[in-house]
Amino acid sequence: MNHLLRIIFPAFFLVFFSCQNEKLNSSKSTEIEKKVNELLSKMTIEEKVGQMTQLNIDVISKGELYKLEEPHQLDSQKLNKAIVDYKVGSILNCGSHTYSREHWHDIINQIQNLAKNKTRLGIPVLYGIDAIHGVNYTEGGTLFPQQLAQAATWNPGLVEKIASVTAYEVRASGIPWNFSPVLDLGRQPLWSRFFETYGEDVYLAKSMTSAAIKGYQGTDVSDQNKVAACMKHFLGYSFSLSGKDRTPAWIPERELREYFLPTFKTAIDAGAKTVMINSGEINGVPVHANHDILTTLLRDELHFKGVAVTDWEDIIKLYKIHRVASSLKEAVKIAIMAGIDMSMVPNDYEFSDLLLQLVKEKQVSEERINEAVARILTLKFELGLFEKSITNIKDYPDFGSKKFSDLSYEAASESITLLKNENNCLPLSKDKRVLVCGPSANSLNILNGAWTHTWQGVNTNYNTKNKSTILKAITNKIGTSRVDYVEGSSIFEEKNVEQAIKVAQKCDYIIACLGENPCTEKPGDIEDLTLPAAQLNLIKALAKTRKPIIIVLAENRPRIINDIVDKVQGILLAYLPGDEGGKAITDILYGDINPSGKLPFTYPRYTGSLVPYDHKYSEKLDIHFGENAFNPQFPFGYGLSYSSFEYSNLEVSHDTLKMNDTLTVRVTVKNNSKIRGKEVVELFMSDLYASITPSVKKLVAFNKVLINEGSSTIVSFKITKSDLTFIDSKNQSIVEEGDFEISVANLKQKFTINN
Ligand code: BGC
Hints:
The chain is an alpha/beta fold. It folds into three domains: 43-395, TIM Barrel (Alpha-Beta Barrel); 416-589, Glycoside hydrolase family 3 C-terminal domain (Rossmann fold, 3-Layer(aba) Sandwich), CATH 3.40.50; 643-753, Immunoglobulins (Immunoglobulin-like), CATH 2.60.40. The protein is 33% helix and 17% strand. The protein has 21 helices and 28 strands. The strands form seven sheets. An eight-stranded parallel β-sheet has the order 11-8-7-6-5-4-1-12. It has a six-stranded mixed β-sheet with strand order 13-18-17-16-14-15, with helices on both faces. A hairpin with a 2-residue loop joins strand 2 (63-64) and strand 3 (67-68). Beta-D-glucopyranose binds at residues 92-93, 130, 179, 232, 276, 311-312, 521.
């Protein structure tokens, strides 16, 4: 084949098959629409309301709410009430802890069999779960780094693979719906769910969003290896004023659109099937009651066609917590009329009873109910549940396989971020003696964080067997005789510090593993962002030994460490790296992996300065009117390598260009070291003058490249109009003519848009 044909042929087939795919998809959706309408026309109001009801598994299990009998079992009477009497359409959650795959199949088979054989229309039940860093509620499944760590890889390809494996293992557990990914932007470091986000930057988070949706859903969710994704929590959940979970956010529409909406828009464009709503309030209106957000924005403007589910008890909260409804009945009416399709009730039948009354009294129109139920049924058809309501265990031979844990290890290795390496103290040599200490040294739970086998992730009984803590991995690598372990400090309390000092004196290095207990949501609220004093005191005490100290941080959010940064020689931020974290951290400490993670957020230096990298010019001004006020501990996008990279020749294709032209940017990156390494090339754009105060810079492109020792590579980017937009005072996305500056590392180039 000649050269041209080689290019044309594959391109032709690609276009041909994607057109065929589109045709198939559209004929499939017409077929589904027909089936949905047919089914809907046969349904009673009770059956419709049932479809809109989602219950917690506790409600159908033996034992009491939140105190289930062990071993877990479904209660046939309660199950009958839910499925047969109330015709419930969806069940969620894992009860009190992780289950085996066999148990998942047993539970879901019982539910589906009852729905199929004992209800008039035999509509399958939609089971949903939070598998947010791998299939975290199934024993023996693969646990990946949490989302923030995934973002720190700056490698969307890896994020897609992680989502794809998660989808496989979730389906292998008999479950077709995953409440993931979290698309809230991490711009409030105090927030307990910071680790669940893709960090503070819109562009990076958008890149990870498309990858995750593609990995979860593929091109067809009826594929038995794919699941329906659930983008959450729409909209503005992550940015409460106080930093406490589910407390008020004040976010003007312009800022909502500039910072918090783009990830959701990206997910919708990528075909996300479902959305979960923000439990909190924005500008005084709980989002579950906000028609403008749930209908005008989500449906009319963004054209989202999928299912909108509430978060946990959020209709009840409209009455009991937010107090915008004076009764539960009014709350149900408000939420459903605002645009909710399914209520995660999840612990009783009041929602179903009240919604039924409201429809009968014509306070809620049947049209609104039909719209919601049609979306739910469409999803069930799309997932293939009518043909096969549950998968077969035997079809998933790769569940929990080595190739999956290798992927988790790769992701952890690419995420862990080296923040300080004074005098190249790292990597450590394997024949030296080390003191390992600190609260995260010997805990698999801290490496995994919340949503691991249990909601808060603190129970050690269910941990995956044979996974290494940091201590175990270090011992495996350099041998017991070279490792001393003294706890030194728990999360909050100093423990045998004197002994730690004594042992440190006999050692060559100190590896102090610090961090935070696993926690999320309300239980994760904190009063102070500073790392607990006991841990800081341990480091200050150990520093007196003058032995080199390397700290490893396993934490949910950037805890302030300013007091100890100068006392240590090395800092490794591990985020929450998952089951393979211990091994990956150790391999980085000892140089078997060259670190390549970069911060997906700004690491603050002071509790009173929680300012993101894309701040305004006024936020740079200090008391002397100099420009030093923005002074984080470590900047967004920062991360060291054992290689050293040098940037040169930043070129732009045009000095002046028209709005619709494409600008090509090229830069040379040289690996000036004797070690092969990966570097994230980050391209920032500054709109120098604009009608809305411009950010000092914004990330608009990046590329992670592997560069051999001594080699250089040219990285090029295409910049178009969409990279220059901002939201104006009329809440429209626009580009203004004028001067722009591009920066890559320490290089800068200007260009002008002139129409
Ligand atoms: C969380 C959601 C989660 C849901 C179901 C809520 O408390 O906010 O993120 O999906 O529980 O477990």
